[in-house]
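Intended use. Records like the one below are meant for learning the mapping from a protein sequence to its folded structure. Do not use them to infer anything beyond what is encoded.
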Amino acid sequence: MLCPFCRHGDSRVVDSRSTEDGTAIRRRRQCPECGRRFSTLETASLTVVKRSGATEPFSREKIISGVRKACQGRPVGEDDLALLAQRVEEQIRSTGRAEIDSHDVGLSILGPLRHLDEVAYLRFASVYHAFESLDDFEAAIAGLRVGNQAAVSVGGAGGVPLRTP
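Structure written out for the chain above:
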């Protein structure tokens, strides 16, 4: 690591800490030549490969923007959207891949969105899966109902599993 003060080509790590959201590492360094200290911020880049083949950096803001449209008029707040985007990013980063297809990003959104708001999920899924008829909507609604019935039979109201002693 090049010292920003004296341009010496080496430095020593004095302290390393993870950022609050866990997406970066902040390192305090000290130059052995001039003795001055400085900080670096290290992040792992995540690139989205679009259908056209073009690439762009992953953006939580793009996730929030797309989901916000599906949530319009629904009781979903900005904090909910930010948390959803964080979960999507964590899920994608957990794959360990540096590049991910935009299709996989969309799939990563569907799960958390379904749990956040089913109407918003249907709106997003209808665009994402390019629903063409009422049959497509009916199939998606049937899938939601089956999922809800399974959750209720597993544990109780609202799909929250009951704990047994």
